[in-house]
Amino acid sequence: MGDVIVKHIQGLMVSEYGLEEVLLPLHPEDGPKNNIFVSPNWQTAERLMLLIQGSGAVRAGQWARALCINESLDIGSVLPYIKECQNLSYGVIVFNPNLNSQPKKAPQVLRSTFLTETSNPFKSKPGEVEIPENESPPKHVIYVWDNFVEKSKTKVSVVAHSAGGHGTCILLKSRAKSFHSKVCGIAFTDSAHYCNPSDPEHQRFFLTTKAKNWVKSDEPLDTLIATLKHVRVSAET
Predict the structure, then answer these.
(1) What is the Cα–Cα distance from 165 to 233, expressed in whole angstroms?
(2) Cβ within 8 Å of residue 149, ≥6 positions away
(3) Can you tell me the distance from the alpha carbon of 216 to that of 210, in angstroms, rounded to the nearest whole number?
(4) Which of 39, 162, 198, 217 is catalytic?
(5) Cα-Cα end-to-end distance for the chain
(6) d(CA 90, CA 82)
(7) Residue 52 falls within a domain, yes or no?
(8) Checking CA distances to 212, which of 61, 106, 196, 204 falls within 20 to 30 Å?
(9) Each residue's pLDDT tens digit, 14-64
């Protein structure tokens, strides 16, 4: 069921929303591949939206696998975000940070996490092949940034869910100069990111002035929950 949902969502992103599927790495042409989805105007639109999901079994186009199956695609997928971006003439890039390896024969892929920038805590099992330059979620977000976002001439906004928040912070730290010049704001949703006193001052300043983390709460929407390390507000859910 999960694989069917993924194929359906990714098919809709192409057929209904006009996004283009791009296989990573861009070179060489053979070997195991990751896939992301980009709008035709990702390089030329005045604004570019990056959609970065969390960890686990979710693939490009999904926020939460269980919600896609048990609730609806309007709740569990990125499709409503893409539609709104198109209404606002935004370009879109849909990341796929959890597709890090492929079995040689089966279509099932290895799960991974956003634990560190360079290491992949789940080593490939016998018969599995890591995807070059996308061997872990951190490597994936850096690869997409360097090969796509860096080449765009637009202002960038980010929506990052759960562990996608940690991946976003990796970009903020490792690509600081271009991140600050391009990104005008981050919308975290139940993000797993954190901000320590030892983090660079520029990173802590950005997270407290240009980012909000919408979290589960019974409080009315946008009610301030905390500001100690980063701004957390109610998602009214």
Answers:
(1) 15
(2) 48, 50, 93, 156, 178, 182
(3) 20
(4) 162
(5) 27
(6) 9
(7) yes
(8) 61
(9) 999 999 999 999 997 789 999 999 999 999 999 999 999 999 889 999 998
Tokens of 7: 């194929």
List the one residue out of 209, 203, 208, 201 whose CA is nearest residue 179.
203
- Do 181 and 220 have their domain in common? no
3-state DSSP of 35-102: EEEECCCCCCCCEEEEEECCCCCCCCCECCHHHHHHCCHHHHECHHHHHHHHHCCCEEEECCCCCCEE
Per-residue DSSP letters for 121-174? SSPPPTTEEEPTT-SSHHHHHHHHHHHTGGG--SEEEEEEETTHHHHHHHHHHH
Domain co-membership, 114 together with 11: yes
Give the pLDDT score at 65: 75
Tokens of 51: 């959609």
Q: Express each pLDDT in 168-221 by its tens digit.
A: 999 999 999 999 999 999 999 988 787 777 788 888 889 989 999 988 778 877
Tell whether 22 and 88 lie within a shared domain: yes
Q: What is the 3-state secondary structure (H, E, C) of 212-225?
A: EEEECCCCCCCCEE
180: containing domain: 2-193
- The verdict on whether 198 is a catalytic residue reads no
**Stronger pLDDT, 76 or 145, i.e. the higher one:** 145
Looking at the structure, do residues 39 and 65 belong to the same domain, yes or no?
yes
